[in-house]
Amino acid sequence: MAGVQDALEIKFRLIDGSDIGPQSFPAAATVLTLKESIISQWPKDKDNAPRTVKDLKIISAGKILENNKTVGECRSALCDVPGGITTMHVIVSQPPQEKDKKAANKLKQNKCACVIL
């Protein structure tokens, strides 16, 4: 395809509205590479830091990006503004163990017993 950029300027928007970047990524870079970059640049003052790439979801143009896709494959027509910066949203999900523990504690707290005399 003629006119397709070799690199994309990407800024990552965190849930609190702060940003990481912008940074230039080649079109051949994978979403997994983007996630690794986010983890390495995560602000030290944030409480909800991801531990692994599995804790992160990247959303671009309303779609959750898959780890094995390249930046070039994920690019939408909206991102093809020459010299523009693409903003991708980053969501940190809780590890499953924490969710399970919270659900178990909630069940224990809401437990009631009836006694028939």
From TrEMBL:
Domain Ubiquitin-like, residue spans: 8-74
Keyword Membrane: yes
UniProt-listed Gene3D superfamilies: Phosphatidylinositol 3-kinase Catalytic Subunit, Chain A, domain 1
Membrane-spanning segments: none
Tree of life domain: Eukaryota
A Pfam match: Rad60-SLD_2
GO cellular component: a single term: plasma membrane
Membrane topology qualifier: Lipid-anchor
Keyword entries, A-Z: Cell membrane, Lipoprotein, Membrane, Methylation, Palmitate, Prenylation
Localization of this protein: Cell membrane
Signal peptide: none
InterPro entries, alphabetized: MUB, Ubiquitin-like_dom, Ubiquitin-like_domsf, UBL3-like, UBL3-like_ubiquitin_dom
Major place of residence: membrane
Protein function: May serve as docking site to facilitate the association of other proteins to the plasma membrane.
PANTHER family: UBIQUITIN-LIKE PROTEIN 3 HCG-1 PROTEIN, UBIQUITIN-RELATED DOMAIN-CONTAINING PROTEIN-RELATED
Protein's name according to its UniProt entry: Membrane-anchored ubiquitin-fold protein
